[in-house]
């Protein structure tokens, strides 16, 4: 398998459909977001990136963060990418933004291109255009905001309408650190996730709780799906998440 170069941490705001292509593939103005993704859901970039980054990867996937405004999507991405927490005043995302991170999964370099969407209603039509090419979705609610939890069902309806049928989906209850402000119990999140058959964990962009685990679990699932090796046992995302939660002694689902 040939090694490809990854674009390193490019950020762009305001729904950069064409910009995304021009940065990622040197292919501006293609029309829809990520329309170069083959049907099997794996992106094998056809040429070296325009970036002068030296990060190489074998396979790439698109992961999308969705959920109400203010649940912590941008903070979760910044925590994962940079290991930092964006404290202070809340700056709502405009349109859509993305960052890349390459993970080493069992010796395979997996690039995640992570799309951070705007949770505000007025940007919903922009977000819809990106669902189709997402290989995985992290759906967030805020454990201190009951409305964001109640809206999960509506988000799931939207996901079923716009995303690929076999998209990898995970539910995350963010801001688990905010003990005093919590209004949604972990058990409620677990129950909802069970109802819809999706893996679940609580996270905190502030402390970093389960942030790496959430992205790693998704990357593992995508890698296993795309490189099925008959000699390897089947990877089960649910089981992996539950096992990891148990072994960390935290937040069993
Ligand atoms: N305590 C705590 N606060 C958080 C956490 N994650 C995010 N926040 C705070 O929540 C607010 C919103 O975070 P963002 O990441 O900007 O929210 P968002 O989901 O990207 O919002 P939109 O871009 O409008 O969709 C900010 O003030 C963050 O500091 C967390 O894990 N714990
Ligand atoms: Mg944001």
From TrEMBL:
Presence of the UniProt keyword Magnesium in the record: yes
Cited InterPro entries: P-loop_NTPase, Small_GTP-bd, Small_GTPase
Record Pfam families: Ras
Cofactor(s) required for function per UniProt: Mg(2+)
GO biological process: protein transport; regulation of exocytosis
Enzyme Commission identifier(s): 3.6.5.2
PANTHER family tied to this protein: PTHR47978
Name of the protein in its database record: small monomeric GTPase
Species whose genome carries this gene: Lepisosteus oculatus
């Amino acid at each position: 398998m040939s090694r490809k170069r990854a674009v390193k941490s490019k950020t762009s705001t305001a729904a950069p459909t064409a910009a995304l292509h021009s940065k990622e593939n040197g292919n501006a103005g293609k029309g829809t977001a990520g329309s170069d993704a083959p049907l099997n859901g794996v992106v094998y970039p056809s040429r070296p990136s325009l970036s002068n980054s030296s990060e190489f990867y074998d396979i790439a996937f698109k992961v999308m963060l969705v959920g109400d405004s203010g649940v912590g999507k941008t903070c979760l991405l910044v925590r994962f990418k940079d290991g930092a927490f964006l404290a202070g005043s809340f700056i709502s995302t405009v349109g859509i933004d993305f960052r890349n991170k390459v993970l080493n999964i069992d010796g395979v370099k997996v690039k995640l291109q992570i799309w951070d969407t705007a949770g505000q209603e007025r940007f919903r039509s922009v977000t819809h255009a990106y669902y189709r090419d997402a290989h995985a979705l992290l759906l967030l609610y805020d454990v201190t905001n009951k409305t964001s939890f109640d809206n999960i069902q509506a988000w799931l309806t939207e996901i079923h309408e716009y995303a690929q049928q076999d998209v990898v989906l995970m539910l995350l209850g963010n801001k688990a650190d905010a003990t005093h402000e919590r209004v949604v119990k972990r058990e409620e999140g677990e129950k909802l996730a069970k109802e819809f058959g999706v893996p679940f964990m609580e996270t905190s962009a502030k402390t970093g709780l389960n942030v790496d685990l959430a992205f790693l679990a998704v990357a593992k699932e995508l890698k296993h799906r795309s490189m099925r090796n008959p000699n390897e046992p089947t990877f089960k995302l649910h089981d992996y998440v539950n096992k990891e939660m148990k072994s960390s002694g935290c937040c069993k689902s």
